[in-house]
Amino acid sequence: MSYKIKNFCKLVAIAYHYDFIDAIVLSLFSIIQAVIPIVKIYYYSRFIDTVLLGYESGNITPFLPQIFVIGILVGTNLFFVELEKIITQRMRIQIQRSFNSMLTNEISELPYSEFENQESLDLIHRCQDKAQDKICYSFRALLRLVSMMMSLAGIMYSLSLRAWWIVGVVIFACVPTVIVSERAGKADYKVNQYITGIKRKYEYLSSVLCDREYAEERNLFQYSDNQQQYYNEQYCEASKRRIGVNARIFIKNKVSMLCVFVAFGFIIGVLVMPLNMGLITGGYFVSIIDALLNLNYRVVWGLSEGIKLLSSGMEYVNEIQLLQNKNINKNKSFGTIGKRFQEIETIEFINVSYMYPNSENMVLDNISFYLKKGKRYAFVGENGAGKSTIIKLLVGLYSNYTGQILINGIELREYKSDELNPIVSVLFQDYVQHELSIGEMMRLGQLDQECSLDTELLHDFEVDKIIEGFSQGEKTKLGRSQIGGVQLSNGQWQKLAMVRAVSSQASLLIMDEPTSSLDPSMEEKMFNALQRRSKSDLSILICHRLAMTKMVDEILVFESGKLIEKGTYDELMKQQGIYYKMFIQQRSWYCDENKEVV
Amino acid sequence: MKTKKWFKTIISVSKIVFTTNSIWMAGYCGAMLISACCSAFQVSIMNDSIDGLMSLISEKAAIMNLMKPVLLLITYFIANEVIFSLAGFLSIPAGIMLENKLYSLIHDKTKRLNLVCFEKRESLELIEKAKLSAESAINYFYASASILFFSLPYFVITSIILYKARPLLLVAIFLVFLPQAFAQIGRKRIASQTIDDFVPYLRREQYLKKEITEQAYLKENRLLGIVPKFRNMYKENLYSHCMLEWESKKAACTIQILVKIITVIGYLIVFYISIDSLLSNYITVGTFAGIFSAIYRMLDFSEEFVRESIGGLFESYGTMEKFIAFLDLKEDSGEDVTIDYDKDIEVREISFSYPEQGKKALDSVSLTIHPNETIALVGKNGSGKTTLARVILGLLHPTSGNVKVGKVNLHDTCPSKRYQLSSAMFQNYFCYKISLKGNIVISSERTSEDEEYQKVKEIIDIDCLDEQILSKDFGGIELSGGNKQRVAMGRAIFKESRFIVLDEPTAAIDPLEENILYSRIREIVEGKTAVIVTHRLGLAKIADRIVVMDEGRIVEHGTHEELYSQMGEYYRLYNSQAKWYFN
Description:
The complex is a heterodimer. Chain A is elongated and about 115 Å long. The longest helix of chain A has 54 residues, at 224-277. Chain A is 61% helix and 10% strand. By secondary structure, chain A is of the alpha/beta class. In chain A, helix 1 (2-18) crosses helix 5, helix 2 (20-54) runs antiparallel to helix 9 and helix 5 runs antiparallel to helix 6. Chain A has 19 helices and ten strands. The N and C termini of chain A lie far apart (82 Å). Chain B contains 18 helices and ten strands. In chain B, strands 6-7-8-3-9-10 form a six-stranded mixed sheet, with helices on both faces. A four-stranded antiparallel sheet of chain B has the order 2-1-4-5, with helices on one face. In chain B, helix 15 (511-525) links the parallel strand 7 and strand 8. The radius of gyration of chain B is 34 Å and the shape is elongated. The mean pLDDT of chain B is 82. The interface between A and B is large, with 166 and 161 residues.
């Protein structure tokens, strides 16, 4: 129960916090709307009485002022309904603006491992999905409930002056509706939670069936019909659940609704007696019926809808809380540019082992090595040997490894991310295609956004050609998400990303397969660029083309999570181990012209 | 002209929406119709019961007699409520069924689109917007169904009842209903305008959101320290988007308030007329009460229904137009002729440029590929290799020139026949986020029971269970780049083919593997016509002939020995790569 109260308070707090003015205005409106029906009963009954009295006289003039008052009442009511809608819309937009950006901030600060966890991904998806609607509409539902309670109380009061027992009957009759609606909201949210998983699956299939990314294979393999079938299966599964829960809610609702109707019927039936005895006027009788019917409409619809919305809103707030709890140890400095406080001197791995969560395979198995500044290193080895995982550990994406990783002699886990991040520049295999301008993309991570880039570098990677190709030069916008943005090929993107990584001031440069979509001739140019970088820097290169590794100071060869060979090119070739074998094999493809090559 | 188009759109969408074969949808419409009748009879029910009551009271009748009209009234309200909320409940499954139908329709249409549609901004936008517009079609369904099956019958019946009581009362209907209806026309204009304004913001917003909330992006952005930068950009974009949305909402609401004022005036007039009717004995007190609550309810309806439905109808119109435009996109079609890859593939003078790009990607390229021959396409980035391969596969239609296989013009055949015997592995290799098995069998009609499946698994040699999901998104594992490429290769060779294109088949594969794969590729292409696109010239050597491309043209072609001795472009490229292996 206390948990419910907490969520309830949180919902109200969110609404007031993110849009104070609109929340206040809406609250005021709900009070006004609560009062109007009460006033209306009073005027209606007087009005109808006068009409009934003047019924025989046939003269309309005496009623005109009353008609006017009623008109104003109805008019203001309608008007406030309209205003309420506008304010709600504004609130929705306000919440969308402030709350959503808070939410994305929160998500952007989650620990990296959460993004590889299915449950957390589902949670993130749910929290982001129409956040403004969930908050705003459940808040409005809350206000409506309050206003309804108030006008109910008002009507009850005016009734109780004549017959106190009516109050008891009405309250008693509403109990089932309240209980059922509250449960319904919860059940609805729970099913939605369950469905999110399936929904993500079929939405993915739908993107396979529609998106550009898959267009080539979709056309060539003509698999749409088969995938459509899977899509249907998943979709039906989800919709069965949804329909099922709604059907149950519907039936329960209607049963509880019957209680309200019977009670109201009972009241009307009983009121006939005092009417008969002349204790109440006909006008009062008619206006009570009118009020009850209206109230009944609001109770049956408003109460059940409102409570349903409110309780699913509270479930949502609970999930937001869960999300925020995941951030409890958050490192506030994530992703900020700090000062370059030092340079990398040494990197040392001592008996490092690592295993992905929920997996039994050792990705890294007792690895130890020592790297120091001023040198270039190459990591080679088969796919899945653990090279990329080492990089992820080194940049602090995972912290639950065993063994020690020392940077300048200090354990990696003791660094704050803003101390470490500015001294590393990484080009991941799955580098991001940032849809900014060409100039911005290449200067990401630089402290000075206006700094000039190495022209030789631009020339080597033919980036100058790319820039010249567009009339706006470096200011050319990239990507489809911007108006007037241009599309680049994968190769062109990789070149920009490479320029970005290489021209960074960071003293540790890591590149994972930096030339995978480029001409081999680029590899040489990349090396020249590395040579031009500061002599005191440390660079690590992961590559499959062994020709490239000849130029580095030390080569580390990995196999199934273990470091198996280490040394310079000459040493390794002399050893005639795995590296030698790989090198010879690659060379064999160029072999028969051995003699002809310079 | 404009009205005609409007009409056409409405008709086309209606055709799609209302021909959905679903019990749920029929049930929904039926329930609404009954509910409309039920609501409409409120006037006469109120009339009977209240008048009955009144007369009984004046006669001082027994209590038991008085209960009868009360019971009647209560039963009526229960029935009304049940049927009304039944319609409300049925709207959910009806919407679900319709959504499924619309999405299937979109998938089916996308299936028939040519690859070039995905390169053209205009059509790509339509494709991207299709799902959004399906949502409006659903709204349209709700809107038009409530007009056809609820509002219309309700207003007709109420009109008749009112007319019978006193013809003048008919004015009530118009005074309450018409201003609402007119207001929607204004809203339509605002809505269709804002949709176009929103889309760019929305697209940017979705992208920026990815930059700060998705794994692959965050990994890099955190290190670069640019998360705050993107957060700010997201915030700014969101701000402008919200302001724009608020502006349009404000405009719509202003209209709505004006309408409200007119409606209230209308209400007062109706009020006046009904009192007058009561006093001049046209109607009884019961009917008066009935009309009174009926008009109030009508206001509610014109609020909830007319506004939601007609308003929704107009609002959704703008996007529905896009939906129809999407469905009208030109489909890839042709004759039902089988392609015989035992004949020569003749590429004649083809040129191709991507839409909205001035430069020709291919500039009158001619080439003959003999059956069972392996061709290597080499050249620098952007020299047109991949485009040429796509044209030869039939995925892209050349701007001029043609590709003939034997006597058949490849691009004149229907897609199902065109790709029947060809397969390919594309440059942007990826895994589908489904099981390993699913990833491989997806390319063919064959199933995993086929012995070919085991063969393919042997060739690609991945140490992973058949049922393993290949994505962390769905509780599976994430393969390394090299393994992803192997899965893509497995997919390409699992499909039965006589002609195969391999575009950069070993880009992400490690050296030891690459060597094994080179020999496997030899096996794969044996007995097939093959085109290998690569910039690794080592791989090119396994081809019978090498074609060197530059700037969209073929600059050299011949065997490795021939080209090498020519000392041209190929010689230069080859040496630049080979020299690293020899000192």
